[in-house]
Write a structure and sequence with these properties.
The chain is of the alpha+beta class. Helices cover 22% and strands 34% of the residues. It is elongated and about 80 Å long.
Length: 514
Amino acid sequence: MDTSPDQPPRPPGAGPGRRRAGHHRHAAAQGPPGRRRITLVALVVVAVTAAATLVAGLLAGTQAPTATTRALTDEEAERLAAVRVGTYRDVRAGVRVAVGTGAGRTDLVGWVDWSRPLAYLDVGGPGAGQDRGLVQATPSAVVQRPDPAAIVTPARPPLVPPGDRWRLRNPPPGRGLAGALTVLFALAADRPAPAAPLRAGAGRWLGRETLGGDPVDILQAALWPPPASAATAPTTTPVTTTSAAAPDGRPADDADPRWWVDRDARLRRWSGRLTDGTPITVDLDRVDRPTPWPVDALGGRPGLPRAATDEETARLGRLATRLRAGTGSAAVTVSAPLGSAANLRGGGWLSWSAGVAYLSVAELDTLGRRTLRCRDRAGFARADVPVGPHTAAAGPSATPPLPLPTGAGWRLAGQPVDELDALLDAAVRAAGPAPDATTVHVRSDRRAGRPVDVFEVRRQGQRLRYWLDRSGFLHRLELRTTGGLWAQLELTPGPLPAGIVPAHRKPSPPTPRG
């Protein structure tokens, strides 16, 4: 026996042959080296997949819902019936919306204020197309600041919106941007929907998840039929009326939208389809919820309306005298979103002493054509004229030609033909006696570097806003249009150029209106 100090003593019976047999049994249990590597790779793949799934679930704050579905309990039916009231009472929320999937997906990120109501969104995503850019909307109007070069993934819009390049839009109803806006405004209502049909089987409980660390129930029900487009729904009949929201009592099916509702009846997520079948998902964030700032076309910065003080009422009373003082005239620029998609821009002059206004106006989408508009004490006249190189280079605010062109085919009218005529008429009449009206101080603001007060005057079915500085001069006049927008006339004091038709004459040669 080898008892060398370099070798440990061998146990009895453990000869060399026996050691080799044990070694071979161990190797057989391990398997060939290639098979061991395959086994290790498979284990690593399984571990990585499990870790990725866990991380994705943690990032989304959700876990897979249970698979068993059932009818709603009475408590769940009552909670779902009240969910839109909870949204309305929360006033506003941050929103993230995904419309469509894959390369056709459009993303909308921003805020909704249901108390105004107003949506302010940054639109992006691979399928955004011409909708890419900033959007503000009410249930009756959509204005957009297009930005085709914007990044694909949208970010939160700037709290103070840019002041330029906004234009009225009329997107196709029921799909895309218009369909998403319709859904956003329809997620809130000032009264609950009837719960009886939900208790009778018009809704389903699909499961439970966790969103943002809070447990939510996934409920399925059609609480209202597909509403009209947000861009065309009349302001006097919002899409969230009780009659439009009442369940029809039919059994719930898989085509109905899904509502992620927490224990306090607050909506956390909504998923469904637009009228054209496009999938849409809305996530609500009630932490990031600033007050959206409307652009000028939608009324401008929110204020705290109040009754006018005695000093402010007296300042308004001196407006006519102030406008006729000095030169009694001003250069004007106009921005008039009219109807559902007309974006009129123009420039010209106005004289309070002569009672005349003269403008050149163009539609932003058709700058190759311009319309001359004249208002004097005899009435209104307009004529379409060709655009020369100088006028085209000057852009939409180009001033009209002087003297007034003859033979232009002037069309005459004794009364305002549209709301831009009504705005011009109100501006000229501001230098005359003021009829009885209701006056509200809307807010304080700034114009041309000077502090101004914005007063809203309601009279004879009109809503006008006067922007007066402390000296009593009128810097801007706004008219509320039938579409719920505000047309603006900017005024800069200055002399009236020669060649404008005198107040006692009509444009010549006139032709019959029509």
